[in-house]
TrEMBL record:
Gene Ontology MF terms in the entry: DNA binding; DNA-binding transcription factor activity
Domain Cyclic nucleotide-binding positions: 43-142
Leader peptide range in chain numbering: none
Domain HTH crp-type residues, every copy: 156-228
Pfam families assigned: cNMP_binding, HTH_Crp_2
Organism: Terasakiella brassicae
Recorded superkingdom: Bacteria
SMART domains referenced in this protein's UniProt entry, alphabetically: cNMP (SM00100), HTH_CRP (SM00419)
Record flagged with keyword Transcription regulation: yes
Record protein name field: Crp/Fnr family transcriptional regulator
UniProt GO cellular component terms: cytosol
Gene3D superfamilies: Jelly Rolls
Length: 237
């Protein structure tokens, strides 16, 4: 998770301004004392935040909702590469390398976010090299997450992969509770792309997990009844 509270230099100035409880961090004083070109933006479900090939405008910090980072094929089909939850940053790779976006970002739910102008981020980098290192650290975390996902796909059973997905989603909603209720932010087809599990197998797993008393599911509303048991399942498989 690329939470802005995990980086001492790259923090979200809007968090300071709004005293957001979701976003604990704030930009380093070098940036916070500047005339930041910060913007607070809202998007409806299904709206793009940016599209593949768009020029980068800045670093984003999600305050509310869920965002899918998608990669589109030449035939127009897409795969969800990553889900962004409140408290996470995105868009930083394009800012760091000054390149157009290589993926698209789509609001899966109504979304509120803040954006820090790439010009201010670059000014912060010039004044404090540690800001660049924090950006690089975020990219390294992304690479680590991709490696973990690949390892799960290769070494874990589909039951364990699905348990890991539900466990991770629920931790973003509430990091401490053993019982958590949330709407699935993506379709079963997207879940299939994320986990490498067929849609048919996902439907069977939902029924199996319900029969085991691990979850309850009604019209896309998931209740994790025993998150600790999900975690144990991941470790065992």
């Amino acid at each position: 998770m690329n939470d802005c509270s995990h980086n001492s230099s790259l923090h979200c100035a809007v968090c300071r301004a709004s005293n957001s409880h979701l976003l604990e961090g704030q930009l380093d004083n070098i940036v916070a004392e500047s005339n930041l070109r910060k913007r607070c933006l809202d998007f409806k479900k299904g709206e793009p935040i940016f599209l593949e090939g768009d020029p980068c405008e800045g670093v984003y910090c999600l305050k509310k909702g869920v965002i899918a980072i998608r990669k589109y094929g030449s035939d127009g089909t897409s795969a969800v590469m990553k889900l962004i939850f409140p408290g996470q940053n995105f868009g930083y790779r394009s800012v760091l390398f000054d390149k157009p976006h290589k993926t698209s970002a789509e609001a899966l739910t109504p979304v509120s976010l803040c954006m820090l102008s790439k010009y201010d981020v670059k000014a912060a980098i010039d004044k404090n090299p540690k800001v660049r290192q924090d950006l690089i650290n975020l990219i390294e975390q992304d690479l680590g997450a991709m490696e973990e996902k690949l390892l799960l796909t290769v070494t874990k059973t589909i039951r364990s992969r699905f348990a890991f997905l539900l466990f991770t989603m629920s931790k973003h909603i509430d990091p401490t509770a053993n019982t958590v209720t949330f709407h699935l932010p993506v379709s079963k087809k997207d879940l299939s792309n994320i986990t490498g599990i067929t849609v048919e197998s996902l439907s069977r797993l939902l029924k199996k997990f319900k029969s085991l008393g691990l979850i309850d599911e009604k019209k896309g509303l998931i209740t994790i009844l025993d998150r600790e048991a999900l975690h144990e399942m991941i470790q065992e498989d």
